[in-house]
Amino acid sequence: GDIRYYPWGDTEGATVKRVLFTARNGSTLSGHVWTSDACTRNCPGIVITNGSVQAPEELYWYMAAGLARAGYVVMTWDPQGQGYSDTYGDGADRNDGVPSQTGEPFYDGTEDALDFFFSKPTSPYAPRPSCSTGTSHADKQRARVLDGRDAAYNPLFARLDASRVGIAGHSLGAGAV
User: What confidence category does residue 9 fall into, taking pLDDT thresholds of 50, 70 and 90?
Assistant: First the structure.
């Protein structure tokens, strides 16, 4: 990625918040939510799903910063098995999405990322039940929120117009989108 964007949230008028949340298979997904002073409220949003293996979330920070400067709320994230996200799920779902190139972490993860992006204090994020076992990993999400490890909801929800949200992807992320 372009190292000029690593401290982007430390610059005046720029906001970036790191988030962690639990995927439907119990893996922890890592991401960031971006905006700038160009967006105060009712701004359009976009969720970016990156490509596989060689394309971690940081490679898309240039795009997130550019969109944020243009008045968007943006979410970048790493699908399961990519970047800082967990490789394995949890419990009975431990091997769901392994290896990540099967596509499940990108397809299911994009839906999970959108669910997180739309979350707010009155409707906190809760992972959907697992596709393979029907297991709910909502207890893990709640426990990690109580421990301060996961975000309960999108920290920039107040600026987002949830009726104007797009998705973008690259490589396997494009297939998911």
Answer: confident
